[in-house]
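User: Fold this one for me? It's Phytanoyl-CoA dioxygenase.
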Amino acid sequence: MTVDINKPYSALSDEQISSFRKNGFIRLKDVFNEEEIRHYGDEITRLTIDLNTQKLPLEERSTYDKAFLQVTNLWEQSDVAKEFVLGKRLAGIAAALLEVDGVRLYHDQSLYKEPGGGITPAHADQYYWPLSSDRTVTAWCPLQAVPEHMGPLGFYAGSQHVEHGRGLGISDESEREIAKTMEEGKFPYVTGAFDLGEVSFHLGWTFHRAAANRADKPRSVMTVIYMDRDKKLKETTESTQLDAATFCPGVKPGETINSPKNPVLFERVSA
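Assistant: Here's what I get for Phytanoyl-CoA dioxygenase.
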């Protein structure tokens, strides 16, 4: 069987897009098959282990650093990883869910939760992103099945509209404060095991978290973050300066984010 990462996923229904618009996330079955997971997953996991710089044992790390090993922009490190990240299948889904004419790459990030790795505290990704609108989406792609004891991602449905908690980075405080806000607002927490090949997509302002990895095997995940093709850089803050310099080099506030690190990955074909 030939691996073709550009082969489109089945068309999303109006009901699925409406659900994403309402809840700020969606889970899709069978986005990848077993051969595709093995082909890309082996390389992505190898790169993560080789390139990560975390040397402390788990018990000596902060809550953030216990959550996972992470490496960004693997697409610049390997032809196989580049093929995955720049592929049109995920990008096409992202454009459909965001309801935009095209999407660019913001960046990719592998998330390797070691056996015994801690929780990923509740947070919203866009706290770190110097982006001008909410038209951003993360594809969370497990590289194996993720049973509940391995720490699957969970989402607070509808929380993308909540502003309280957006000013908190990933931390013990964000876990406490966001969980409290979600409980008070009666935002349901949705989680559960991921089947092999299942992928979730969530908006940049959707609050989410993950449990600890209680398995004796690592939970290896690749994420790709997409943004509206016409997205502009906004003035940076203390929390967004690093991302602006790292993922949008040379772009000035008010300009379209079209650096060499932000290629257009998918555009709708005009009728």
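One thing worth pointing out: The longest helix spans residues 34-51.
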